[in-house]
Write a structure and sequence with these properties.
Two copies of one chain form a homodimer. The first copy, chain A, contains 19 helices and 15 strands. In chain A, the strands form four sheets. In chain A, strands 1-4-5-15-10-11-14 form a seven-stranded mixed β-sheet, sandwiched between helices. A four-stranded parallel β-sheet of chain A has the order 8-7-6-9, with helices on both faces. Chain A has a two-stranded antiparallel sheet with strand order 2-3. The longest helix of chain A is centred in the middle third of the chain and has 20 residues. The first copy, chain A, is globular and about 60 Å long.
């Protein structure tokens, strides 16, 4: 019998990770704490609980437990949607003619179409357990909104989703799927909130931004009894839930004794990237492993590669806690010709810290190069990727082509976060050559930076 | 440790079936042969080859080999998209409060969104092997067109898809995904063929039908050098390829010693139903097993439950071979308020024969009941089903509810053929209560029956 590595590596149900991995417990130096925007003091549990579920607030502040047990009820749901396969990209390797081995962890094989469901179900579970009756959230590309509407339907919780207006109009079927699962979709900015009305007054006709949708969601949550706000990225507890991706990846690699040379994933707010790299980071910090860890972002929203490492608000309305992170400024909005997600102005504090301390790399890519890679991948591997995920594909292909030059048999592992079923308008634009690239000028970036708060910590 | 059956049963790569299952080798009495429409004599290999690839023609006429080896190249592709999971519907059981065990084989976890890819890749492979440079086909709901465009992209073959006009307009993104994979989509009926022009003249403004799209595809294929016609259902060789579904299901059930009491799947032309039941039929015919095998069809296109078992054309243009099958008449077109697929006028000859001989049952269901079941399933099992697949869900739920009455712990297994990502307009209609049911009157059916050819065999 041949020792061929299977095309798809599946874990058995009893091999599924039973604990999430908490990177905050293993950072050599903790990242700086979130600050209460009024007092400018570190957020306490009480501060957090005003907006978030109690259990999620505790997870956010937990910097000691490396492993956190996944509740049995969440495990049972995970068994419906997981494990996701780790796939050897035999055909992609073949058409590239590379000696490299390419693997991808595919998180898109569920109705939400992405990894977002891993955290959505956990957040809905904790909300239910706490006796909440409704949740609010925002969604950009729509993957998070879909995942959360599925999760709320599962637990019988009402949901209001503020959807970035540009996305809602580009992707009417995303809105429809959220509604099919019972979610109430409001295009953001909207007239339903004070912050929405202010933004509309200042920027009439704006397509909105994730930061603005966050502000609206938080406003409704804090004004509604038995209602909290949840979000699908940026926060450390979201990365905690997403660590299931990395934990499964690690187990699958070990099962076939595959030692990765590089781990690649895209970064918007950082949820998939953080979850994917979580269990790999300890050995990188300790120097036991020397794999490269590469964050990929769109050139049109270059948070890590061109942002500042300072305290900033998580939202445009400047009501959220202040977080120390790479940011383009809470007022930054990427050009409207940028398709899909990865349009958030900041990056999760753990990721920002790891990048600042040199444990991870970051690179940015152009939109048309991303779609070109997406189509190469789709035609060879039979999966139509989400544009977000295709950022990772672009870099994986580029690295594999470098191996073709050097003859190195590097093992490249990337996270394929979701499917492109709801991005066909963007694919059509690319095929019809009406898609453009956008790289913000230094002047454009300055405008965003000017919205960073002028507080003592930023001096 | 508990002996709980896993939520998802996956086969290992080395457990994947290496042979397709040919029901024609085990029918107690062979079904009557396809007839050359000009001579009214049984189709020979030469007749078949004029339209179809040689190897597929041979498979169509093979009534002796129970197992047919899957070529290595197709196995390699199957390893990318298979195995599909057999899932225990623990949460659906729970919300129904039924003592029944419900299992579903989910074929929608690939970019084509359905089981159609199982046969599409095989047909593209044989076309490539024969040195063809282009293929033509038709698509209704768009699943087959997507699957074939992916397969042709994989092998570098040109593809023209005649898409039923009503579907193309209901599902613009289906068209876009076919084009993303390089397929050329033409709305049918079209001005590009003689038969299309005739139909447009007779029925201006028609939304088209699968039968009409077949005629147009065949016309182009027979008039173009190095081009053949392929199709995604109805033919015996398609069911042969789809037997991979049933073979995997059977293996997964055996792995956990699950003895099914009933097998349920939807029928349009019959490809998923035939493939799903293929390896189970021998024991049913021999009387070794007494499981029920239930075909589900839409009340608006009641081929098995209200059709005639006679010779009819496979296409509206009456140029295809004549097949002995249950049919509503090649001129039958379901009401335009019928959403999704399962709109073909006939049913595959093997299935028709099995139904006629009493080995399988058939039932029909109303559209709104189908969508109601779909949403119950989506909210509990976290998968948005294709409307076609939801026909099976409806009957599975009804049978599970009967068990609730009787207290029986029946084991219900159904095939979940695909996802509903491209059917959100129909879901919105259902949610907005603008969806209607349609049950053809006897008079409506008479109109269809009047298009059945008046040939000696039908006397």
């Amino acid at each position: 019998m041949s020792k061929r590595i299977p095309t798809k590596i599946y874990l058995n149900e009893n091999e599924l990770p039973k604990y999430w991995y908490n990177m905050n417990a293993v950072l050599k130096e903790k990242h700086e704490p979130a600050l209460n925007p009024k007092t400018l003091k570190p957020c306490t549990l009480e501060d957090m609980e005003k907006v978030f579920c109690t259990e999620l607030s505790k997870q956010e502040l937990n910097t000691t437990d490396e492993f956190i047990k996944i509740p049995e009820e969440i495990m049972d749901f995970y068994k419906m949607i997981r494990p996701s396969p780790l796939t050897r990209a035999y055909y992609l390797e073949k058409i590239l003619g590379t000696p490299a081995e390419i693997y991808y962890k595919f998180e898109g094989n569920n109705t939400s179409g992405s990894h977002k469901l891993n955290s959505a179900i956990a957040q809905a579970y904790y909300a239910k357990k706490q006796g909440l009756t409704s949740l609010t959230t925002e969604t950009g590309a729509g993957q998070w909104g879909t995942a959360l509407s599925m999760s709320c339907a599962f637990y019988g919780i009402d949901l209001t989703v503020f959807m970035v207006k540009a996305s809602a109009e580009q992707k009417p079927y995303r809105k429809a799927i959220i509604e099919t699962f019972g979610g109430n979709v409001i295009k953001s900015p909207s007239e339903t909130t004070e912050v929405g009305r202010k933004i509309l007054e200042k920027f009439p006709g704006t397509g909105g931004s994730l930061g603005c949708a966050v502000s609206e969601s938080v406003e409704i949550a804090t004004n509604t009894p038995n209602c909290k706000y949840v979000l699908g990225s940026v926060m450390d507890h979201v990365l905690l839930h997403q660590s299931i991706i990395g934990l499964e990846t690690q187990k699958a690699l070990k099962k076939y004794k595959i030692e990765p040379d590089m781990l690649i994933s895209c970064v918007g707010g950082g949820s998939n990237f953080g979850g994917f790299i979580a269990p790999f980071i300890k050995d990188k910090i300790n120097g036991k492993k020397n794999y490269r860890i590469i964050a990929v972002e769109p050139a049109s929203c270059p948070t890590l590669t061109r942002g500042k490492y300072v305290y900033d608000y998580g939202d445009t309305g400047m009501i959220s806690p202040l977080m120390k992170m790479y940011t383009l400024g809470n007022g930054f909005i990427p050009s409207s010709n940028h398709a899909g997600g990865l349009r958030y102005h900041g990056a999760n504090p753990i990721i920002s810290k790891l990048y600042h301390d040199g444990y991870i790399e970051a690179t940015s890519v152009n939109q048309t190069d991303v779609f070109d890679a997406a189509i190469t991948f789709a035609k060879s591997e039979g999966i139509l990727p989400a544009p977000e995920s295709a950022h990772s594909i672009r870099v994986a292909i580029d690295e594999a082509l470098k191996c073709k030059e050097t003859g190195e048999k590097k093992k490249i592992v990337f996270c394929l976060t979701g499917t492109g079923f709801f991005d066909l308008a963007a694919y059509s634009d690319f095929l019809n050559k009406t898609m453009e690239n956008y790289i913000p000028t230094d002047e454009d970036l300055q405008k965003g930076f000017s919205t960073i708060p002028d507080i003592p910590q930023n001096k």
